[in-house]
Design a protein that fits this description.
Blueprint: H1 2-17, H2 26-29, H3 35-53, H4 58-69, E1 79-80, E2 86-92, E3 95-103, H5 105-108, E4 116-120, H6 121-128, E5 132-139, E6 146-153, E7 159-165, E8 170-171, E9 177-181, E10 184-189, E11 192-196, E12 212-217, E13 226-230, E14 237-244, E15 250-258, E16 264-270, E17 273-276, E18 283-289, E19 292-297, E20 311-315, H7 316-321, E21 329-332, E22 338-345, E23 350-356, E24 359-368, E25 371-376, E26 384-390, E27 396-402, E28 409-414, E29 421-425, E30 435-443, E31 449-457, E32 468-471, H8 486-491, E33 498-502, H9 512-516, H10 524-539, E34 548-553, H11 555-566, E35 573-577, H12 596-599, H13 605-614, H14 616-619, E36 629-634, H15 643-654, E37 659-664, H16 675-694
Parallel strand pairs: 32-33, 32-34, 34-35, 35-36, 36-37
Antiparallel strand pairs: 1-2, 2-3, 3-4, 5-6, 6-7, 7-8, 7-9, 10-11, 11-12, 12-13, 14-15, 15-16, 16-17, 18-19, 19-20, 20-21, 22-23, 23-24, 24-25, 26-27, 27-28, 28-29, 30-31, 31-33
Helix pairs in contact: 1-3, 4-16
Amino acid sequence: MRSIAIILAGVFLMAAASQPSRTPSDAALEEIEGAEAIAWAKAENAASLPRLQSDPRYAALHDEALKIVTAKDRIPNVAFAGDGALRDFWQDQDHVQGLWRTISPESYRSAAPEWRTLLDVDALAKAEGVTWVFGGATCLAPDDRYCLIRLSNGGKDAAVVREFDAVERRFVDGGFQLPEAKPNVDWVDRDTLVVATEWSKGEVTESGYPYVVKLLKRGEPLDAAREVYRGQVKDVAVSPVVLRDPDGTARAVLIERALDFFNTEHLILTDGGAVKTGLPTRSTVQAYVAGRVILTLEQDWPEAGFQEGDLLSLDLVALQADPAHPKPSLVLRPTPSQSVEQVASTRDRLVVALYDNVKGQVLSFAPGETGWTATRLDLPKDSSIHIASASEHDNRLILSVTGFLSPSTQWLADATGGEPVKLKSLPARFDASKDVVEQHWATSKDGTKVPYFVVRPKDLKLDGQAPTLLYAYGGFQVSMTPAYAATVGKLWLERGGVYVVANIRGGGEFGPRWHNAGLKLNRMRVYDDFFAVSQDLIHREITSPRRLGIMGGSNGGLLMGVALTKRPELYRAVVIQVPLFDMINYTRIGAGASWVGEYGDPANPEERRVIEGYSPLQNLKAGQPYPRVYIETSTKDDRVHPAHARKAAARLKALGYDYLYYENMEGGHAAAANLNETALRLALEYTYLSQQLMD
């Protein structure tokens, strides 16, 4: 053991010696691809990566991760297409950038599916010399032949848009094209698009998104498009949404003007221009079915008799006739333990994924003269259920059912009823026979009960010695529901670790109220919930501060930074992924201005006082019991700017702390542009966790 320690110490000394001698200024670190910042990031990588990749466990962890993420027996994420086929986007070790492909339903269900490639992104990237990342396709109903494909350079949110012919399997000569921006675009008809984009250089909101909507005709140059709506620079973004019948006929164009991340002004396009509707700003249009607009409420609507969390229906013709005075009807009112997690529509059914105490079910609603009639689909209980695709041409659904220890299954269901048919099952990626899942509840500082899931060995000794990884997010009404933990299972659970997922406030596990409880001035409730779960794990002697590690990304990366600076004594390992960190300046970095609705505005004195109390960068101090942290980001992340992670590492270094830092030069907000980069990231993370919690 002593010789291993000497070797590892030598690795540390060599790595420390290669640390860059000069740290750029904060301003330089905010230059996303500035020469000084890139040189610094590369030097940091050179200093940190050997300390992980020289670990004897790294190679095996990398091989296992790569095997899982590139496995060819994964369940394809298929969706219904208007030509009667199924389509998906697929990546594996042979197709790193991926294939957009198609298959008949009959062939898909056979023992030997025969796929047909629509677009080979690897070949396109090689031909054009650009690391293209496929960002999805918006296809024109009803046949879905013509599609607007988004391609981003290296995984950025910014993308180019090109028209593609799915029958000819090529880009359309002289077809629609939009230059790199963050566009919102939809089809009105074969020769008309409704587009919000950066029409001229710098014509974006303070958050970096478009706010001018125009109608673009086929063959027109961009500067000839006709403007139909203009928002304001202070808005977050403006997006057009086309409502259409199953036969493809466009019935209305809605314009969503995001005042902040959660408050949206809803307008409807008429011959005389865009007309504001009387819908509450804290409401979200979810679907259009049988002539009805479906929306969820994220606030009370006392004038109409509705409350936050309600699912509502509006007659489209009536809304068009009198936009200022909408007359909704109730579809569903969740109980306090429930939340509407997902809404979709088939040809004439409304389909809802409803969760109760973070366990899923699917309801199908049929419209009638006197209201909606609900039917619960017969699916596995105590699972997470995701609506992967809903056919607009009939009532078929593709559903994904998953749990922490149960390999995911894919089901074909009919929204009108009947017994669902299992399409595919994921082979087990790890031995789950020795593990068990439990749901516990912790009591937060203000008395609120907070649920969390524990995945642990059945024979776990409650002596506080179990290496435990706690994951959470806590923001933007995003729910952390149970999901098959393939890489966690293989890289952590099989090696004796415990995995925990916390359903803290800020998320959507109990609907809008759970999210609203942690906004702005109440932000510390989110972090208090996380600390309560951490302490409950220790109190139950599942683990101890010596064996407890935490992980979170983006908003969850902010959570990790708060945990590091507020309660470092609770944790031995902290994985900080693509984080927010400098909350005093976040509104002017990247897309930060768009999140004022979540965190508050540092320019507001009352809100600034709260933000100053938890902003990780400003709360880093010398002489604290910080564990060695691992920070990772991506140069191409144009959503949460890499400056947050860079400044975190620079400040830790200036204060004399040990830390690890990895900046992927591509990858966008996912911190990986392809599956090889994903496997690398996973191996680095679990090597670090092994060193901190298992050694």
